[in-house]
Specification:
heterodimer; A: about 300 residues; alpha+beta; 3-stranded antiparallel beta sheet; 14 helices; about 40% helix; globular; B: about 140 residues
């Protein structure tokens, strides 16, 4: 394993918009191996001959979660495919061979998971990037692979789009407002209902995405809309509450009791960004996301391209 | 005492917030008595007391297995399920910490953070007089 020279954009503080450049600046021409991104949440890029097979991150649901939690594949079928996959065949290929998932569908889900994984890493903190040149042990290789340049550009676009939103995918925990509860009681359908149902003050967009088996980006975008409409609110995090007063049980303690230094109770806190403050929504207006996940225009175009290549 | 309880509660909340994917945290005595928790009471899961009891029971079995096979002291256990993890870690000889997480939980990061949390919680528990005090801390 070797440590790659970090692009200048990543050295200071490390998070944010320029992260996708890391894939552009490493020698990925015919790169095979695993690019390990250490940080919070961090993650891995599995590459083979310069093509991305899979992207995984604790910050976003992987292919397994998307397939199982959404009910596309049953747990029994899954266990059976894993047993066969253990003999050397990748589980994804096994699922396709058993006609449990179509090849194009698997490709789209892999692309979606890869975009979410790159998004999670890009929006989090990046400490360093290392390359493990061993062949990647990818469970869910995208059947057609994923082009690093395309993934980088699309991830960057998504990060920019979410950068203008008032909610972050990991740290902000969502609570349903009274208006949200009324709407839920009135009986709404689709993804909005699911998000409202699960927004209990303890879960972030990332947690809800895992719980529902939906994409991180789609859930975050829809949550931004719910927040804008006043149907959900942001709950203060324990880290913010404990800021400056914890840990060190034997040391000096902040006289301010926990629970009073939360986001809403301290007027000295920096103001929060509101939707459209950066003007990004003028360029990339929010689209409603309802019902099952649908590929974006870019993904659909990618699907057609992959389809035509077969 | 309230201060101690607040510090314990804050400690488990911070652990939940520091590690991506953690959903519930309990601190329990080795016999399964709940000391403090940060759990989702709105969910249809076992609840804090049930989680504390089950975590302590499974940890105890693993500890006995290690003892029988002369493997020494048990530090932690990791149970992986289709939809998540249950990680238990010893806090000294008298208590343990149980962490539930979803399928994406960063287990390696949790091990680092939980080890540090366990040390701080151990200081809090021993400073309050051990297990007897833990009974008072139990809400």
């Amino acid at each position: 394993m070797r440590v790659l020279p970090l692009p200048a954009a990543l050295r200071s503080g490390g998070s944010g918009l320029d992260f996708p450049r890391v894939l552009m600046e490493v020698p990925h021409g015919r790169l095979s191996g695993t690019l390990l991104v250490t940080g919070d949440p961090g993650g891995r890029f599995h590459l083979e001959d310069g093509v991305i097979l899979e992207v995984t991150s604790p910050g976003s649901p992987g292919v397994e979660t998307l397939l199982l939690r959404s009910g596309r594949v049953t747990e029994t079928d899954w266990a059976s495919a894993v047993r066969s996959g253990a003999a050397g065949r990748r589980v994804g290929a096994e699922l396709v061979a058993r006609e449990l998932v179509g090849s194009a569908e698997l490709q789209l889900i892999c692309v979606m998971a890869a975009l979410d994984g790159a998004l999670a890493m890009g929006m989090g903190r990046i400490d360093r990037v290392t390359l493990d040149p061993e062949p990647p042990s990818s469970f869910f290789a995208a059947p057609e692979g994923i082009e690093p340049e395309w993934l980088s550009h699309e991830t960057e676009r998504r990060i920019r789009a979410l950068g203008g939103q008032p909610v972050t995918p990991f740290r902000d925990r969502l609570s349903r407002t009274d208006a949200g509860t009324r709407l839920l009681d009135d009986g709404i359908a689709g993804e909005r209902r699911d998000i409202l149902r699960t927004a209990n003050g303890r879960r972030s967009c990332r947690d809800i995405a895992f719980l529902l088996g939906r994409g991180l980006y789609a859930v975050t975008v829809e949550t931004s809309r719910l927040l804008h409409e006043g149907l959900v609110g942001l709950a203060p995090s324990a880290l913010e509450e404990a800021e400056g007063s914890f840990p060190a049980p034997e040391g000096d303690r902040n006289p301010e009791p926990a629970g009073q230094s939360g986001r809403s109770g301290n007027p000295a806190r920096l103001p929060r960004r509101r939707p459209g403050a950066s003007g990004i929504t003028d360029v990339l207006p929010l689209r409603p996301v309802s019902g099952p996940w649908r590929p974006s225009t870019a993904l659909a175009a990618e699907d057609r391209r992959f389809g035509s290549a077969q | 005492m309230t201060d101690r309880h607040d510090q314990l509660a804050a400690e488990v909340r911070v652990l939940r917030d520091r590690v991506v994917g953690v959903t519930d945290v309990v601190v329990a005595s080795v016999d399964g008595l709940l000391i403090t928790s940060e759990t989702d009471e709105t969910d249809e899961t076992a609840g804090a007391e049930g989680l504390a009891a089950l975590t302590a029971a499974s940890f105890s079995i693993a500890r006995r297995a290690g003892s029988m096979s002369s493997k020494g002291r048990l530090h932690h256990t990791v149970s992986q399920f289709t939809d998540g993890y249950l990680v238990a870690r010893a806090i000294g000889d008298m208590a343990l910490i149980g962490v539930l997480g979803d399928a994406g939980m960063d287990v390696q990061r949790l091990q680092v953070e939980a080890r540090e949390s366990a040390e701080r919680i151990s200081v809090l528990l021993t400073a309050t007089g051990g297990k007897d005090e833990a009974n008072h801390l139990h809400r």
